Amino acid sequence: MKIPALFCLFCLFAVCLLAGCAGEKQQLVVKQYILRDQGATGNGDPMVRQEKLRRLYGAVSLEERKAKLGQYYTILWSLPESSGSDRKIVFRYQQGGSGSRVKTMTRQISQGSPDGKEEFAVIGDDYFDDGRVLAWKTDLLVDGKIVASEKSYLWE
């Protein structure tokens, strides 16, 4: 009788411990991927190889493949369904060759979905002319107010 009671107590403790580790869902997550070369190899890692192939998909000639080289930012966002009507993601960044100039990309978010994914890319001529992205900041705005924000370490 004591072993099952002790086992149940242990299971209850484990469940409470795991439940305590669960965090709340983040409103804004930024994932970065840098596509540096045109080769389809992923240094033995199938996940890296597949990501490269996905980014290079549709590019046939060397010129088309070169135009896809650069930095990709995938923004995962989540909002309550009752949030406002004017929703957008603003991505600001600075590049090595553009000095202190801040460039901006903006995407409108459809009102019907409570969460989703947007992708921003600094590729092609923009990447080769002004260099790699040194610092970035992403804001999730609802009706003109910042609801969530993420930034790189070097953003001031």
Whole-number tally of structural domains: 1
Predict the CATH topology. Answer: Immunoglobulin-like
The side-by-side strand order for the widest beta sheet comes to: 4-3-6-7
Shape: globular
Alpha carbon gap, first and last residue: 62 Å
Helices and strands: which structural class? alpha+beta
Low-confidence stretches: none
Sheet-strand content, in percent, reads 35-45%
Major sheet: 4 strands, antiparallel
Order of helices and strands: HEHHEEEEHEE
Q: Describe it for me?
A:
The radius of gyration is 21 Å and the shape is globular. It has 4 helices and 7 strands. The chain has a single domain, classed as Immunoglobulin-like. It is an alpha+beta fold. Helix content is 28%, strand content 37%.
Quick overview:
This protein has helices at residues 2-21, 46-56, 62-67, 124-130, and strands at residues 28-35, 70-78, 87-95, 103-108, 115-123, 133-142, 145-151. It is an alpha+beta fold. The termini are far apart.
Task: Give structural attributes.
alpha+beta; four-stranded antiparallel sheet; three-stranded antiparallel sheet; Immunoglobulin-like
Q: Which helices and strands occur, and which strands form pairs?
A:
Blueprint: H1 2-21, E1 28-35, H2 46-56, H3 62-67, E2 70-78, E3 87-95, E4 103-108, E5 115-123, H4 124-130, E6 133-142, E7 145-151
Antiparallel strand pairs: 1-2, 2-5, 3-4, 3-6, 6-7
